[in-house]
Amino acid sequence: MTFLRNNNLKNMKKILLFLLLSGVLSAQSNEVIDFKYRLNDPKSTTKNLKVIDAREDKNIGQYSRKDKTYTFSFPTDNAKSDLENWFEKDNKKRGTKEIVIVLNKLKVYGKDGIENIRFAKIFISASSYLKIGSQYFLLKVVDETKTINPREYQNISKTIASAVGFGLNKLITDSYTAEPSKITVPEDQLTNYEKYLTSDLAVFKTDQLQDGIYKDYTSFFNQKPLKGYELIKDKNGQFVRAEGKNDKLRPDQIFIYVENGVGYKGTFGGFLKMEKDEKGFYIVSGLTLLDQGLTKYYFAPGSGGAIGGGLAALGNFILDKEQQKMLEKEKKEKVYLSPLTGEYIFEYE
User: Fold this and answer.
1) pLDDT value of residue 306
2) Any idea of the CA torsion for 187, 346, 340, 134, to the nearest 10 degrees?
3) Rounded CA gap, 234 and 108, in Å?
């Protein structure tokens, strides 16, 4: 009898363990990055595509929603061979160009927004080069974060996998026709291209930002403000426009302005003060103010609605007091500016 009881006990433990594991496995799902988009070179000018996977962390990441966690991976868990095979499959006719893709970072993760929405975010950092002899001429740089609202899609995991595939596809297909820049990166610096390309930028060589108006990220990071413009503010001290001799610039036409050595970054909710640390320049903000496309998920159109200071306006939308309170309660974090593209870089979890 003791023997039977022990056997029954062991069997029950096995069943419980099986049920527990089944529950865990059912709450997890792996999604393969979608390579459904055609990667063909329309003019067949490219001979081959070489991929350098320079990611320190090869784990793409995960996104959780409603007690289910989705992980993401390349078809064979090898970014280099998978991307190169993708090119080979879609390009039977070849030319003479040699293109090199450097994949620096690729992450999928979740971020909490307002109204208890857990947004899916995709961060891709990569560059492409035209190889001529022993030289690598810069073609394209991608350093950006894509936001996906799960309420807009029935199958969020497949949407994320598709978006990652599309992002990689766009980098490669854009590289086919991109004009090579005069910037070259030494072969031994390709996996370190971010630091190499930003090391000579004027903004990182000065302790004092030059006052003035900057219409784009390249002028700011090279510290070349527009000449002859005056900052105009309202009675509350909010910046409303910049005036030159022959024209006026609206806030939405200005990337950054610097006053008394302090930079202010234009956003869809007004200008936010910039700070700097060892990682670069950043602002402190919630998700919504930095993503104009998200306005449709929360707010109805107002009347008028140019971009103003503070939280009074969001893109072409006027916010009421309740909506302003929602945005003020939203979790704030450091959001960096990419010196290579001017895009926002959110720190992933």
Assistant:
1) 27
2) 10
3) 42
